[in-house]
Amino acid sequence: MTHRPVDGPARAVRPHPAEPLWTRPPAPDQVDPAVLGALLHRHGWQRRGGARGRYGRWTPPGPGGSGTSLLVPESRAYPDSDDLLGEALVALSRSALPAARDVLVGLVVPSDEIHWWRDVPTGPLGAAPWDVEDHLRTAARGLLLAGALATRARAGYFGARHRGPAAASLEHVLVGAAPGGRSLTAVVPVSPGRPLAVRLHQALYAAREATDYRRATGGMDAFDAAVEAGVSHELVEALVSLVRGSEGARIAVDWAPAAPAPEGCATDAEPVEFSPGDLPALREAAARYLREEPSVPVRLTGAVVRLRRSGPRGEGQVRLRVIAGAEVPQVRMTLDEEAYRIVGHAHLVGLPVRVHGRLESQGGFRRLVNASAVTPVQVDDAERDRLMKSLQETAEITAFFEEACGGDGQ
């Protein structure tokens, strides 16, 4: 079995949970009129009259919706509320306007929204360079990934730790860009995505405060404390990418109208802004996090995927696929002759090994140093067969058998 590297090309986007349903409007008795009104307002619809306290007349944004309007009751106290809601929902489902689809998605799957705006220099007629949108998407994904990492642990630098599960948690996020590449919106379903939105919201405010403190006092203490709020090397690097080459950037989180705002988070929080003047402080923080994150003591269990040494005797290099004990997919380590022999025998009979050591932060927590107490781990026959089959499907096993038969491992 092969796995796409986390930093490799992006896979096809999984459909949003509401994707198969948005053309079928929910039943009127399942819709809160206040939530529908809030979603219409959020997605650019304009209220243009109506009887105050009873219903409002809403028209969509842009010139294409000038002939369309919806009558939406303000509450269920209005006698004909179900009839008006039913007509409005049918009209939304039949509309080709993106603003209609966005409202229905928000009704079917309550979602928080994360917005990015990036102010970039423009050319003639307001045109922007072709790569502006790609730059914004890359920076936004970096911030989402940093938020997902922070929901799993607190660290100044994650490296490879938790990266696979964090990246997988983003598959339910739906992202859409506005024309021109200067803004982007991520739709994050409240279930299961609310923790990601909350952590990113808190981390951005903590990063803003730490940056202000650094610029005002010259001290970096606030960045150390901000780790507990979710600030990390990964988040700061994404902020640097977002701001670099722009005249400034803003990020805002809008909570789903159908769900209460999270505890400790303002219902209508102002966007968090960063400017080019913040870049020196952010770069210094990124380097500090990378430099000072300590190595981690571990006792991990892994299956051997590669063995290599320069001769028939002496120490050698080993790569393990981690099964348990560490939050990384693979580790590399250097073993003395005896430990290398133990690992080689375990590999030949299809057994994983257990080893003590420290995951070194340099290199992204992919290297185990001071490895000791290497022992094979007994597993049942079915698990052993599964491990052997998995390993035999890789080309790397060839290198091991060449060495075991007297090759030089090169």
UniProtKB/TrEMBL annotation:
Segments for region (Disordered): 1-30, 47-69
Lineage top rank: taxon: Bacteria
Protein name per its UniProtKB record: Uncharacterized protein
